[in-house]
Write a structure and sequence with these properties.
Two copies of one chain form a homodimer. By secondary structure, chain A is of the alpha+beta class. The first copy, chain A, contains 13 helices and twelve strands. In chain A, helix 11 packs antiparallel against helix 13 and helix 12 runs antiparallel to helix 13. The first copy, chain A, starts with a strand and ends in a 5-residue tail after the last strand. At the A-B interface, strand 2, strand 4, helix 6 and strand 5 of A face strand 2, strand 4, helix 6 and strand 5 of B.
Chain lengths: 333, 333
């Protein structure tokens, strides 16, 4: 199956580049509202399921035991930009559980935020704290502590923490997750491939609190509220997930993943959304998810205008001249 | 026409992302050796034609008048990484023509090389000298000086320098370049869309020196020799264009352009190559051009192994773990 072109990037009078992809929108009963392209083939959601990966933090009592704040819970769901307050928050999480930055096994990379990277360059080199996944890893370490497991190998598929995570993913998506769909993520934890329509179904359940146990539903509400109250900690300054959740509060939960993935929940509409850009292009996946949110979320005029900046962003060059536009195709409007 | 999938990126047991694209290989008579996908639709070559954009520098006498070295000629053809010797070279070019960094109109961005960016962060902020196109712009300014044109607006389509560039592009590609295929590049100069097979034809002529005037052919030889002798100045440390030209010397000329483009010439085989990744993905375009070079260039065993690293690069995560592979599909083997 050839997925449709969903995003075009123009330059002057011509289309310069094209992105194909697939989009699934489901309700909490699994009923399909939109299925564009192949939504049945398993795709790696990568960081787009970090909120599901963070759920054991609440369910296993770690959030209470270590008195994690809403900002810290948001960090556990984050692909953060490595700005100073992100790094400080992760350090706090680790300290609360009696752990240290040296316990992180996510690897180091330069902060996503250019300003933060420049700051790190002035004083030294990046550490695992600057890795966009360090909050998730700090969360895993807190869970390991709370359940009395050895924190050393918390990232391995067979570790109790990752088994808990896998159980959560299976419960939400209804997918059976075995070796045939398991790979290693950028930060070394397992990533499990799940069909797009099952991811959308899972995020509908995540938003609506239906189709899961009452206790799990309460944990989800707590996690969603933390992200809605502290969206800067889920991504960072100027980033899409942060700006959308700042704009819409608890009306939208949205999270990006590497290689062109976004998952979202519209709790009031009872809908879940999952998109994957075939070629892994993040810029296209962002326009795709923005267009789907614009289609299903009731919007005021100023909200629609704010969202349109992401659906059809103007492309500018190094001098700030307008050189073209990114735009979603008719299929997504 | 739907272009074929030419590159797959795997993660663990599955293909995570797919890149479609088109490939043209032609000889200097315009005879097609390979035509994969739509090679007739105009595409923006962007920086992949910088060597053609640099030709007036020699033809108008600027290179001789300002005693430009081979390194400086290579810089005029470069998308450089903004490392210290790149920046120093561009400053030298400007000084030789009695101009200053403030005459550059390419805009500023952080150096492509992470180490250079960190260095700039420690001492200040990036300037137009760090823009990967600053050598090309310095070349344009030298041409403006040599022909007695006002350097102020050297980047505008109607400026004598850009008219000369457009004439060179038309001569090599045989395309007629008007407003309908003109857009603004990242560094603000015009970029002209040309069908892929005409770009391949143009680079066959560039490599073979056929189908152009004798004087032009001599200028091309001088420019190709400069790039072959100083390939580090065409890109930078660890970059594809640099490593390929270090490996093969004057047997391969290759140059990348933004949004998934590469152009190359194999002078001894009399072939020109042009590739475009549909979605603008540079990683895929690199695997594509590496595969085409591997197919048409006679290779020793160690050369084949060196090239294979680019045809099928192992994908590693932040901890250095192997997580997958990029690979070209059967169509390109």
């Amino acid at each position: 199956m050839t997925n449709p072109v969903l995003v075009e990037v123009t330059r002057g009078p011509l289309v310069e580049s094209r992105h194909r992809g697939a989009v699934a929108v489901c309700d909490a009963q699994g009923k399909t509202a939109v299925a564009l392209g192949d939504v049945a083939v398993p795709i790696f959601p990568r960081s787009a399921v970090k909120a599901l990966q963070a759920l054991p933090l609440i369910e296993q009592g770690a959030a209470d035991r270590f008195s994690l704040s809403e900002e810290e819970l948001a960090l556990a769901c984050a692909s953060h930009s490595g700005e100073a307050a992100h790094v400080a928050g992760v350090e706090r999480m680790l300290a609360k559980a009696g752990l240290a930055p040296s316990d992180l096994r996510c690897g180091a990379h330069w902060p996503i935020a250019q300003s933060a990277a420049a700051g790190v360059a002035r004083s030294g080199a990046p550490s695992p704290l600057h890795n966009n996944c360090s909050g998730k890893h700090a969360g895993f370490l807190c869970v390991a502590r709370a359940i009395g497991a050895d924190p050393a190998d918390y990232w391995r598929p067979e570790h109790p923490v990752q088994r808990l995570v896998r159980g959560v993913l299976e419960d939400f998506t209804g997918a059976s997750l075995g070796e045939a769909c398991c790979a290693i993520d950028g930060c070394s934890v397992p990533t499990w491939a799940v069909p797009l329509h099952k991811l959308a179904h899972g995020f509908a359940k995540f938003g609506a609190g239906h189709g899961i146990s009452g206790e799990r539903a309460r944990s989800v509400v707590r996690l969603r509220r933390a992200c809605a109250k502290a969206p800067w900690f889920v991504a960072g300054t100027g980033r899409f997930c942060t700006e959308i959740m700042q704009l819409f509060g608890d009306r939208v939960f949205v999270k990006t993943g590497a290689e062109g993935v976004y998952c979202a929940a519209l709790p009031r509409e009872g809908l879940g959304i999952a998109v994957k850009c075939d070629d892994g292009g993040g810029r296209a996946a962002q326009a795709m998810i923005a267009a789907v949110i614009a289609r299903f979320l009731p919007l005021g005029a100023s909200e629609r205008a704010a969202l349109e900046r992401f659906v059809a962003p103007v492309q500018r060059n190094w001098n700030g001249f307008e050189v073209g536009q990114m735009r979603v195709t008719e299929a997504l409007r």
